[in-house]
Amino acid sequence: MKHFNPTKYELQSLCCGMHFPDKNWELQCPQPHPQSLIRAIYENRQIQLHPEHTGLYAFSDWLPVERILEGSGAPVTYRSQGLAGLLGMEQLYITFNGYWPERGAWMKSGSFKECEAFSVCARKNSSKGVMVVASAGNTARAFARVCSQNRIPLLLCVPLDNIQALWFEGPLDACVRLIACEKGGDYFDAIHLSNLAVELDGFFPEGGAKNVARRDGMGTTVLSAVTTIGKIPEYYFQAIGSGTGAIAAWEANLRFLEDGRFGANKMKLMLSQNTPFLPIKEAWDQRSPVMLPIDDEKARKQVDEINAKVLSNRKPPYAIKGGLFDALSDAGGAILAATNEEAEKAAQLFLQLEGNDLEPAAAVAVASLIQAVTEKWIDPKSVVMLNITGGGIEKFKRENRVQYLVPELIFPLNADPQEVKRQIAGMFQ
Hints:
The protein has 14 helices and 18 strands. Strand 13 (about 235-240), helix 7 (about 245-260) and strand 14 (about 270-275) form a beta-alpha-beta unit. Helix 2 (about 115-120) packs parallel to helix 3 (about 140-150) and helix 5 packs across helix 7. It has a domain at about 75-110 and about 215-395: Rossmann fold (3-Layer(aba) Sandwich). The chain has about 425 residues and is of the alpha/beta class. Helix content is about 35%, strand content about 20%. The strands form five sheets. It has a six-stranded mixed sheet with strand order 4-5-16-13-14-15, with helices on both faces. Strands 12-8-9-11-18 form a five-stranded parallel sheet, with helices on both faces. The protein has a three-stranded antiparallel sheet with strand order 2-1-3, with helices on one face.
C-alpha cells in the first residue's frame, strides 16, 4: 500500500461559526449552543484525486480520514444511453453505488452505505470501545462488512423485520454483534435500542448525520459525478430516508463552489420517498422548518407497506441547523413520491436499459426521475445526476454464496430500559 498522510482539516460549528480541531470523534460544537451540525473544513480547497489510493480513498482530500482501510469501492459515474434514450435526456449521468465489476463498481454490500462506513471507520478515534450503529438494513450490512474486515468492535441495532438485509459473502469476525427489536418495530425503535447502548461504559455512538465522516463519505457520490462530468450538475436525484445523503450532496456542492473550477451553480435537490411513508415530503411541501407530528402506530403501518424499508426514518436530521430543511432552502428542489408499483416498474426498466438490478430505494429515485421528465418538471437538456444508492445485489448473490447474520438478542418494543442495558453489557463481557 502507498504511504498515506492523514487528511488535514478542522471542524466548524454551523451554529456559531466556531472552528475547532477534531480531537476525538467530535459530533457537535463544544460550546453550549442549540442543536447544530458541524462541518469539516479541508486544507485543500481544490480537490485533487489520488488514484494511487484504492477505492474511496481516491477522494481523500475531502474525507476526514487518518488511514486507509482495505477493501473499499468507490462510486462510479457514467453517461447514460439506455434510460436517457427512453426519456429523451441529453445529459443524464448515473452515479452507481453497488456491485457492477463490468463498470468498475466493487461495493460488495451493494449499497453506498459503504462510502459512509469506510470513511467513518478511518476517521481519527482514540476511544477504545464498541461503536454502536442503528440501521434499517443497508447501513448495518456495510458497517458490519468494514468492521469485520478491520476488526473494529461493533454493535448493530436493527428492526427484526429488516433482518433479511444482513447478508454477507462469508462469516463475520466475532467483533461484530447484532441485536434487534421485535417484529412490528421499525428504524425508530432500533435507534431507541442504540441510544440505550451508548449510555453504557465502553460504548460510543457512530453519530449518524452528526458524524462529518459519514456525510463526507456519502458526498463522494457527488465528487465522482462532478470530476467525471467536469462540471456541477443542474439536478440531483436521490431517494431519501433520513436525507443525510442529500445534505452531503449539498455540502459537496458548496465545496466545489469554493474550488471554483467546476461552475458556480447549486444542484437542485430532487429527492424522493416511498408512498405512503412521506414524512419529509409532507413537511417540506408545507415549507415547515420542523417535522410534522406523526402517530407512532400510523408510521409503523406505513413503513410496513413500503418496499424500500431503508427509507423509513421517522426522526430525520431535517430541522437541525445545517440539516435537510436548510439544504433544500438554499439549493432549491422538491420532494417527490413513488409507489411500490412505480418503483418496481422503474427497476425493470433500469435492468433492461442499463443492465443491472436495483435496490428498492434506488428504484424509487429512478421512478421519480421518470415522473419529473414525464411531467416536464425538468428540461431534458439539463445536466442531471442520478444517484443510484444501491444496486447489483441480485447479481452479487448469483455470483456468490451468501449467509445471514442472526441477532443474538431480540427485544420487545416496550422492553425495560435497564434490562436492555444489562443484557447488552453482558454480550461484551
